[in-house]
Amino acid sequence: MKAMNTVAFDAPKLFAREAEFITVTVAGQLLGLPIGRVHDVFVVSEMTKVPLAQVEIAGLLNLRGRVVTAVSLRSRLGLQDGDSTGRRMAVGLEYQGEAYGLLVDEVGEVLKLNPDEMQPNPVHMDRRWVNLSQGVHQLQGQLMIVLDVDAVLAFVSEREAA
Amino acid sequence: MDDLLLEFLTETNEHLETVDVEMVRFEQDPNNQAILSNIFRLVHTIKGTCGFLGLPRLEALAHAAETLMGKFRDGMPVTTEAVSLILTTLDRIKDILGELERHGVEPQGTDDDLIASLDYMSNASSHVQAVADTPVQAPTVGTLVHQVLERELKPGEVSLDELERAFQEAPGPDDGNAAGTLVYQVLERALKPGEVSLDELERAFREAPGPVPASTPMTQAAPVVQAAAAQKPSKKDAEPSESPEGAEGISGKVQTIRVNVDTLEHLMTMVSELVLTRNQLLEIARRNAEDYGYKVPLQRLSQVTAELQDGVMKTRMQPIGNAWQKLPRVVRDLSNELSKHIELIMQGADTELDRQVLEVIKDPLTHMVRNSADHGIESPAERRAVGKSEKGIIRLNAYHEGGSITIEISDDGKGLNYAAIRKKAVERAIVSESELERMSDAQVAKFIFHPGFSTAAAVTSVSGRGVGMDVVKTNIELIGGTVDIRSEQGRGTTFTIKIPLTLAIVAALIVSSKDQRFAIPQVAVSELVRVSPISEHSIERINGTPILRLRDRLLPIVPLSKVMRLSESEDINTGFVVVTQVAQQRFGILVDGVFHTEEIVVKPMSSKLKHIQLFSGNTILGDGAVVLIVDPNGLARMVGSEGQSDEFQADLALDQAIAAAEELTSLLVFRGGGDSLKAVPLSLVTRLEEIDASTIEWASGRPVVQYRGRLMPIVSCDDELEVRRQGMQSLLVFSDGEISMGLAVAEIVDIVEDKLDVELLAERSDLVGSAVVRGRTTEIVNVAHYLPLVLETWSRSEQRAKQGNSLLLIDGSNFFRDMLVPVLKASGYRVQTAATAQDAARMLSSGSQPDFIVADLELPGHSSFAFIATLRADAQYRLTPIIGMTLRPDAQLLALARRFKITEVVSKVDRRGLLSALAELSGTLEEAA
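^ inputs. structure came back:
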């Protein structure tokens, strides 16, 4: 199962001029995740909260018999956690051999974009966002931030930080 | 790497392990031919395979070792030097194998030194023997050598003359074969790397200095003997005959196949998943009452899964002996190095446990055995001096016990030097001197688990560097195990390790706290107690800290919701207390609900969550929910660390309770007026209450409160403290039957278990005296003082009507007498007291005739029993009811009490029990009258 899940994330770059992104929305902002890193997209049904855990960790999920750590993208971006009513979506990712579920507000369509058209981060963007963003794509009517998946999941536990 | 080579490596490593162990056994039991031929066969197999695979270095070494062992088999006496040499050779072979494993080729280098020594050793025998025996019995060289050798080799000197003579005599004309062999040998050797030519040998032989001490460099002496090696014709014959034997041995036990550990691990994971899925199915079946015909197959599936799980678990099980395999060698080498005689006894080596667990405990075990050998066992001289046999014994014992395995490592050495540990503990500022003074030896012993703690006077190469025991403890605790020490000075030390059978699947109790479920490993759970304010067990609070009184012991309570920060509310009083025991620490986890127990598959915590020490992992329950597994060790650490005390102090309170219970009194410490610390024995206090001061009514200037439907008088604990008129008022409630008294105190501080040493009797009647409690001067309150203040109420007591019965109280402790007398008086008895049996006897002889005698059964020197015996012998007192008081009413004491016709035995702290026993007896007394 493990072997199946491990996909080299920079593979798409090598092939096409076009990179594919899964778009997600958090607090109205469109963000894109490189499709090679995304294992699956699923609806969060039941989540177990972990007492004493750092704020970014929303809880633990049972994804087809596998325990997945749910990370709140909102809190990673320094946003307030939204009202948890309604269905919650998560994007399944793998980081350092462990399974994570990134909680987002909504999951949108898959976009094919030319990596050359990616613009660097605006200089006055929030520091938290800069750290997690690889750049910005200009779409019609809105901007899409390309999320750096590794950076999103590379937060340290409280003890290490201390 | 070549498959064949890999196969060879695994197999050879296994063989070597066995040879190691067998060699040590053989040294102790040189006459055991079975062991020897086993070793011989193994080494021979190694040699054969090496030759086949083209590994010249290994082959040469194995060959040389085999030759020496062949000598043993032919009857050469087994010496420590020879065995050491073979063991060194084995180590070299292992090194080479290690290199081989890493690089796929034999490393560069030669083993001439070893081979030469080995050859010297093997040939020395035949040679010396030849020397000694030739004059008498030249042809029977082969058999007689050995007795001679022992004599000759030990003194360590062989004169060159003798060697010379032997050399010349041995290949004499009457032994034609020998000459032939000589040629063969020479040829064989010439092929090997680093071998010396015969010419050189010859020259060396001639040039060698006169007396050759055995201790001179082996290489120098070796050539001499090597030349002589030509004489052993038997060796070559023996070899071929050995091969079929070896082959037989191998083909005979092809009952096993090698499986890659990863394959097994994967299988285990899959089975774990299967178990989970089965649990989910069972859960669904449980919820749906309707049977669509799948329930029977599901049952079957469940059963098969269980069996499969069992089977796969078994594949992971290995006898603990595997972890012990290295130990005989370790002990042997140590005893040589330290010049001690040590015997290692291993019991229960076939006890099986999970491979994973085995790996973790392997090193700690070795370390502990080393420690025992180095620190524990004394030198032969010391042992003789204290009248022990020179040979020290280290005993390893393993057995199953419940769901866990117990391993004991004990030695009969000098035991822990508590004084040195105490000294060191202070030096290293782990504890203060005053704290240390109050610690029992058992607590002091635990310091050796402190990082960097060593009392060894000299740092040896073996141990004493102070690294180790803390690592041992950490390693063992990591897998949910515990270590315990028992040590008796001069008698030895025993370490007891308890570890779970397996780490993958554990039975867990599923509990809930604030709508969230948690799993608590069942091994740590000793019992469940339901608590509610109205039931028999209710949670009491001391300064906000929850406590449960459980069978006269105080159990610290940890509300799970609080440590998990699930709820802010401090005062939860209903739910279940999961009584948990971790090492010496006992505490109760307060949860809201308890569901059931379930076999859970432990999944590791995500690396992002590993720092939370409260959880040891997580799992998926049958209903699909993820639950966190509470780590009792982590919780215990948290309990201990709250209130800034470290682990040792956490143990302290408990140990104090366990150790010397008869000396300890539970004291309730509170604050009176002017911030003075006061204490009263907890056994006298019925309840602790905090009441709203506005509910206190003032009846003719005296405060009373409605308490449990009755009026309870309140007395201030000292003159300086006013009973409050507003806010909250803390009360200690003393009650007897339906009568209660409330003692108003400023603040309840703590409950402590301490040795009660009343140091001076105060002038004031409200105090018994003062004592040092936990390092603070504390006034011990005399409850008797307050009783007259509320006498009105007490005097209304119906029990007062029973006035008239007289009673003799014999108790060695002033304190208990002072405490009991007012209680007894208040219950309407005329009380006389005596401190000793002699006093009591004097009182009785001076004409007092009590209706009852209440005696402490633990008067010094069993004098209470002697006294009672004399009483029973006297016609006057034959029928006088005697009530015995004891702190520990155990079976032995009860039997003793029956024999001495003691009417009733009550616990000393059970005041109510004493009163009801008295009441019952006065009832019978009246009937009789």
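The longest helix of chain B spans residues 261-287. Chain B touches chain A at residues 273, 276-277, 516, 564-566, 603, 606-612, 614-615, 618-620, 624-628 (CB under 8 Å).
thumbs up if we can close this ticket
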